[in-house]
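User: I'm putting together notes for a lab meeting next week and I want to include a structural view of one of the chains we've been expressing. I don't have a solved structure, so I'd like a prediction I can at least talk through. The sequence is below, exactly as it appears in our construct file.
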Amino acid sequence: MAAVTTASLCPGLGKPRQGHAKLPRSTVCHCLPARRTEEVLNRRDALLGVLFSSAAATSAATLLAPAEAFAETAEVQEGFTAYEDEANKFTIVVPQGWQVGAGEGSGFKNVTAFFPDQDANSSVSVVITGIGPDFTSLKSFGNVDEFAENLVTGLDRSWQRPAGVKAKLLDSRASNGMYYIEYTLQNPGDKRRHIVSAIGMAFNGWYNRLYTITGQYFDDDEESAKYRPAIEKSVKSFKFT
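Assistant: Thanks for the context. Below is the predicted structure for the 241-residue chain, given as structure tokens.
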């Protein structure tokens, strides 16, 4: 289980504490009513879906097959193209000439990734995850600051021995029904990966879905960092249709 800030849910588990605790998926506090226990687990699983979205984006450029059929695109600004996914009801602006890949897998419903031929370390991805009907808005996960803190804390492994990936939160804000989060990830001895994300929620007529738009590049790599303006523009351009 990801590292989290924990508070004991029953007297038998001790006093609330701040730290990194390993919580096995099978751990359930039997002092809680069954409905409350299920709610806690559902929220945890949904947050894990967001964490997986970030991990999926890291290798999207190499794992996804080239898409064969897409909605028509239209030029919106020199150097950019507007991509529309009619089935999943969203649009996003991406740099012209970037490749597009799409796929599905367990743990998420759909992923679409955009990436340049010249640099596999830079990409923008849209991951769509099905969530329960009790999640009616992003506030179901807490406010944007709480959400961002949980997300980045869950990714951080710098406290382990030997140390793992270091995650650092840079910024978080809410705007127009979306959460925007900026953070970095760095494995010991590796380059620092810069992540800009937008998170939104929409109902497709059957169930609610969480949309995680993730742009990434390496801060300390000249070839990768040159895509920063285009990646940030792309993430901010995401809209539901």
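A couple of points you could mention at the meeting. Confidence is low (pLDDT under 50) at residues 1-37, 56-63, 68-75. The CA atoms of residues 52 and 122 lie 18 Å apart.

User: Perfect, that's what I needed.
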